[in-house]
Amino acid sequence: MIERISGSSFAAWVPVLFSRPKLSRRPVSSAIESFHSAFHFKVALGQLSGNWYLAPSKGASSSKARESLDQFTSVAIEQAQGRLERGCKRQPVDLRENPVRPRWKRPGLAFMELVFEVIVLLNAGSDTTESSLTSIVYELAKNENAQRALQAELDGALGPADRNKPGSGLACFEAMKRLPYSQACLDENLRLIPPIPYDPPRVVINPKGIKIAGHHILPGTTVSVPTHTIQRQP
User: Fold this and answer.
1) Which domains does the chain have, with CATH numbers?
2) Is the per-residue pLDDT at 67 higher than 70?
3) What is the mean pLDDT of the chain?
4) Phi and psi based region of residue 170 (left: phi greater than 0; alpha: psi -120 to 50; beta: remaining)
5) 151: helix, coil or strand?
6) Among 10, 42, 139, 157, whose Cα sits 20 to 30 Å from the Cα of 74?
7) What are phi and psi of 213, to 5 degrees?
């Protein structure tokens, strides 16, 4: 399992994790630390009202939360600026490249809009992928039978991974479609340990309101579904 994960380059955290000497460099470790800290603080702030968040606070500007958020935003700005400086010649195009490219004769996103897009991609893509992979490896480590079954399926479909042969054992899309047990492991892990534990809020926009389970919900009301609860209902 570890051999396969270490050979992946689909997420930024994978090469960082398996290049241990680089972690000693302060810019790298500082970026990783601020990324994780900022993510957790923003999750908490997202549950509060806008008035609370905008309230002036002398202590907030020097707090750990504010420092982490500022550092994380700096990482996003650096990513966005780098993409603009390199232009749109990168192949293949990734998710961070698309907002830079003008489409249908329209200009690309403004710089700060691009920064916000990078922030969303870092939060919604990298951290959720990392936390999901971390939890599934943890659960597999506790369940030897499931670990053996998964290893057998991977070896049968992909062939054994070889450290001396770069790229060996890596899955293509067609091979991934033939891994039902692997998909079941991912689905069960997401059900038990969702990477986003809080409830995604939604606002009722119908001017007449809506009806949920026999209850009339007024327009402008924020509603949500408790992920932890609904995924454990029989």
Assistant:
1) 2-198 (1.10.630.10), 199-234 (no CATH)
2) no
3) 69
4) beta
5) helix
6) 10
7) 50, 40
